[in-house]
Structures are given as structure tokens and as C-alpha cells.
Amino acid sequence: MTVKMKYFENYRKLRYILIEGPYEPFENLTAFICNKKMKCKFTMGKNGRKCPANCQCTYRDMFIIDCRKPRKSRQIPPLPIPADYGIDLRFPGHQLIQLPNNTLPGYIKVLKLDVSDNNINSIAIHQLPKELYTLDISNNPITTLDDRVADYLSKNSLNSRHSFGQRSIRWIVYCEQTHLLHLLHTNSVSQYVFYEQLNGKCSYKCKCCFDRKTQSFVIDCSSKAVDLPKLPNRIPNKLTLIFGNCSLKEFPKNLTRLLKTHNITHLDLQENYLKSLDEETVDFYNNHDNTTIELSGNPWNCICKPRSFLFFLKKRNPAEYRMTMDRCGIPMCPDSCVCCLNNLNSSSLNVDCRGQRLKQLPLLPESATSLDLRDNNITEINLQSLDILKNKILSKGLKLSLSGNPWTCTCDLFTFTEKFTFFIQDFKEIECSNLGKRLEFVEESDACPSYFIYPLLLFVFSMIIITVLNAFVYFKQPILMWFYEHEICMSMAVRVDLERMKKFDAFLCFTHKDERLIEDYVERLEKGQRQFRLCFYLRDWNVGASIPECIIQSVKDSRRIIILMTKNFLESTWGKLEFRLALHATSKDRCKRLIVILYPDVENFDELDSELKAYMVLNTYLRRDSPNFWNKLLYSMPHVT
Q: Which residue spans traverse the membrane (predicted)?
């Protein structure tokens, strides 16, 4: 008997019809027609749409629309909606450049979506069905997902295994994309997730992303008990590795190699169980100041081996170093040194100051039992410091290491080292830079010279002082002139002048035939640096006044009297009168000074009377042709401070 399917037309909620014999098809049937083996045929969806062209519609636990035939379609067609079922849409290997809007007929019912091997480069939230729980976008040129899309995929259970296919996607992930980070991190447990900025995969126990602020790729394995992740040989970006709170008990063995081969600019090792770093790692960071390392929150050892680590910890993280010292009960240590113990059960406190360019002895803790000063720039130790070392040797048995310094081996140092040789661990290696040999070969006569040297030095020093004083006395006038000219040691160079209230600094005496000479004196004395006040008849005498009275008044009002003694002056009656009056004034008033300037045309003083001639013979005068004439004249003028 043949079953007619048209009888089931109105049963719109009927899912499938199980038939064992022949039946008559009906084109408006929405239910699946299945045999015993559950091989089912689809006729039409409840929205009236049939199976899309070039696709196969079957039922296998779910309505499957398989469009794998190589039609190379550019868009997903409208879909039939099965009776009370979701859709498994398979649309790989086409030429899709984007997903349709979720308003496409039937698309809203898609629960599984396979669009692998297409040309999709972005996905928007409105392009995803509302109840999608499986998505495969493998082999598409997409590199990132909008954070809302990633959040949607995570909440719709796509973060479970095998529910998000992304094979061959080269992800570009930024650290602020928290939802995408969570989605990829969850899928990395079962799938290979390739990060473009890393040029490889990220460990499934770590989160990987690119930090735009630091322009570095971050591998964050914090709060995970992990081994060091395997990194690609070539990474195009700077790296930040975070292993905070990872229960690390020792520095990862292959991390030092990675530091040298990869551009790891920041390493975070906070809150672990590390006790020390190996010297190779410390050397690397000491030579790469542009790299940073976070070390706080670890139970670091206080023991002296390896010594380089404590220096490194003090330099890179002073607060962590201080906490380590406090935990070990070590008192305040000198700034340029580190303090450590021989072992955790030892009370021996070693002060290590090697290679710190010290120039003097540092202040030692009271409990110090060893001091290492090797390879510094110390030349000597004063008596007070030697006494401190002596007391610590006698009370604590202080051990010293002193080699590698440019020592000036004085008598005090020689005596100290000779007495305490047993406590100086490198005594045979100490070099005396002033003696050119090792301290062990220095004799007492080398470091402590005989006492006759001190009197000899005193005699030589006294002779030097006497010679200098004699030279100063002999060259006093030129020296004082030079001081006055350059305004140096003015208290020594300046003479005290008692006549400060005079109207003029100098009265200039000359004949009318020598008027042409006056211009130089006005230019140099009145308009020069000192700006003296000059008096001369051409300018300062009143017309019609008595010449003798003018001469007397000018001499009286001036602190200096300058005689321009030329041949014309000697032949002038008024010139001789001015000379005589000036001579009498200076003999009565010792504060006045007579300055005679002798010009080259004067051959003798025969034309002077006996009194004036005697003055010229018995007193000094200034020659006009003297090579240092103006400096000498300026120094003879009243001194202005």
C-alpha cells in the first residue's frame, strides 16, 4: 500500500515521518521522510523554501544544509527553516567576502556554521545568528575579531573544545581585546593558535597579545605553574615575559639563552620562590640598561655567592634589597657596598665593596667581620680610619682585602700592614704606586724616610720664601703698577691719599708753545678709564686774573703738579715760576707730589737756577720716551679705588 504524504500537510510541527514501504511524495511537506536507517529526505521548510540550488539538505541529528559543491558562490542564499530544528550550514570553499546579516531568511536558525576556505576578512556582530554555538572560519584572511563578536562567541559556548575552528588564521591580538584573548586562550588547549606578532603559537597556559603602549609582544603566564614556553627562532617584535606568581623555585635554565637570542625587553619574576640569579643572567642585565626586570616578592638569599646578584639587586630594586637585608637581620650597609653572609647559619658579616671606584674607606657596620676593598681608587687611609680598622681587627678579627688600588705607601700604612699582615688576605698582591713595587718588598727606610729630610725641606722652603720676597722688593714698583692696571690685589697696589677733597687731581704746567701736547693728556687722563680732573690755564683760569695768583691757586687746589719739561719750558720765565712755586708747595705739604715729565729735546738743565737744578739732579723724573710711560704716569696719579 502506497502512503500519500499530502495527508501530513497540516502537521507543521511534525519533525520526521518513518516509512518502510512505498509512498507518494508531496511538495508542500515540511517533515523529513526517513527509512529505518534514518536516511531522510527533505522537501520544503516551514517558511516555504526548498533546499538551495547546488546544496544537499539532509537530516542527521540536525538539519544539514551542505553546500560544498564548487559553485564558488559570493553570498549565502536564503535558507529553508525546518520544523522545530536548528540548521547546520556548511558553506566552505566558496568566495564569500562577508557573512550575511542575520535578517537573511532562515539564517537566524543556524546553530552550526562552517565558512572555512573563503575570503572573509571581518565579522560584525549583526552577521552572526543569535544561537550559534559552532563556528569554523579556518583559512580566511581574517586577522582579528571585534571585541563584541569575541564576547558573543565566548558566551554562546564557542569557547569549548572544537567549537571554534580557526585553522591557519594569523591572529593580530592587542592586549585591550580581553574577550578575544579569552576566546583564543581557551581554544589554544586543543588547537594551534598562530599569533602574527609572535610569528608562532602561544603556550596554552599563557595569554599572548601586543601592547600598543610599549610596542612589545606580551606573553603572560602569571599565576600558572608553567615551564618556560617555547618561542619561535625569529620574533619580529620586542618581548615582555610575565611569570609573576608562577611558583618558580629557580631561574628557568633556558631563559638566559633566550635573553641573548630574542629581544626580551621586560621580564617579570615577581611573587615566586626564587633565591638567586645566576651570574650569566646578571651580566646580561648589567650590560643592557634598556631592559627591565621585576624581582620583588621573592625570598632572595643573603649569602655572598654569587656576589654579583646582590649588587645587581641593590642597583635594580633597592627596596627589595633592603627587605632582603632586613629579613636576614643585616644592619644598614654602606651605599657603595653590599653586605652578605657566608651562609644562612653564619654570623659572619662580609662588606663587599669591590670595583665601586671608591676613593676613601666607607663607614662600616659594627658587626662587620670582613671588608673587601679590591679594585677601587683608594690611595691612602687616614690615621682615624686606620685606628677604626685596628679596633675592629682586635675586637672582631676583621679580615681585609686591599689589592687593586693605587696605594701611596706612607709610613702609617706600612706600620699598620706590617703589624696586621695576618688579617690582610691579599697582602702579597698590594702594589705601592708611589714606590713602584709590591708592599711585601717595601723596607721601612722606603716608607719612613730619616728625619734629616724634614729640616732640609724646611730650609729649602725658607730659601724659596726669601727669594720670592727679595724679588718682590726689587720689582715692587712694576708689580704694583701691573696690579693697579689690571685691578688685582687693589688693597696692596693702591696708595692711601690724604688729600681727597681737592678740586683737581692734577695741575698741568706747560708753556703756550707746547699747547699741542695737552690733547694727549686730556684724552688719556680725563677721558680714560680713571677720568682724572685736570687743571690747565687754557681752560680753567679766569680771563684778566693775575698770573702769579692763578698759579698759586691752581697749585693749592690740586693733588698733583705735572711739569711738562720741554726745551720751551726751560726757556720760559712763567714756566720757571710755575716750577718754583710747585717746588715750594710740595716742600711745605708732603701730601702733594710733583711729577716732572722730561721730554727728549731737553739735553741739560743749565738754564735753570741753582735751586731748580739741584731738584732735578737729586730727584727722580719721568721720561716722556719711556716705553711704559702712560702706565707709570697713571700709577703716579691719585689712586681711585
A: 451-475
Question: In the chain, how many H helices and how many E strands?
Answer: 19, 30
| Interval 211-259: pLDDT, tens | 999 899 998 888 776 666 677 767 777 889 998 888 888 887 777 777 8
Q: What is the pLDDT of residue 4?
A: 76
Beta strand residue intervals within 141-230, DSSP E: 164-165, 170-171, 194-195, 200-201, 207-211, 216-220
Q: State the chain's maximal CA–CA distance in angstroms.
A: 180
- Measuring CA to CA, which residue among 519, 528, 546 is closest to residue 536? 519
Q: State the cell numbers at 42.
A: 527533505
**Residue 394 CA: distances (Å) to CA of 377, 387, 390, 399, 421:** 26, 11, 6, 11, 13
Look up residue 595 and give its three cell numbers: 711729577
Answer whether 171's CB lies under 8 Å from 195's CB.
yes
Whole-number Å distance between alpha carbons of 526 and 484: 18
Q: How far apart are CA 66 and CA 574, in angstroms?
A: 140
Q: Are 15 and 48 in contact (CB under 8 A)?
A: no
**Geometric angle at alpha carbon 569, from 568 and 573, rounded to 5°:** 105
CA distance 481 to 631: 7
C-beta separation of 25 from 32 below 8 A? no
Task: Dump the DSSP string for 599-611.
Answer: -TT----TTS-HH
Q: Give the span between the Cα atoms of 346 and 206, in whole angstroms.
A: 41
More confident residue, 345 or 624: 624
User: CA 13, CA 9: separation in Å to the nearest integer?
Assistant: 10
In sequence order, which residues have a C-beta less than 8 Å from that of residue 186 and are 6 or more positions away?
154, 159, 160
Provide the H-helix boundaries in 206-263: 255-261
CA pair distance 249, 440, nearest whole angstrom: 47
Cα separation, 546 vs 268, whole angstroms: 105
CA-closest candidate to residue 198, choices 206, 442, 190, 106:
206
Q: Is the pTM of this model over 0.90?
A: no
Strands 349-352 and 338-341: antiparallel
Please name the residues in contact with 418: beta carbons below 8 A apart, sequence gap of 6 or more: none
Average pLDDT over residues 587-609: 77
| pLDDT, position 288 | 85
Three-state DSSP class for residue 26: coil
pLDDT at position 589: 61
- Three-class DSSP category at 108: helix
Residue 108: which of 124, 90, 86 has the closest Cα?
86
Q: Which band of pLDDT confidence, cut at 50, 70 and 90, is reported for residue 493?
A: very low
CB atoms within 10 A of CB 632: 17
Nearest-CA neighbor of 275 among 310, 245, 223? 310
Tell me the C-alpha distance between 252 and 406, whole Å. Answer: 41
Q: Which of 479, 623, 495, 621 is nearest to 561 (CA)?
A: 621
192 band by pLDDT with thresholds 50, 70 and 90: confident
pLDDT tens per residue across span 545-568: 888 888 888 888 888 888 888 888
**Contact call for residues 228 and 254 (beta carbons, < 8 A):** yes
pLDDT digits (tens, 9 = 90+) for 90-105: 999 999 999 999 889 8
CB 202 within 8 A of CB 193: yes
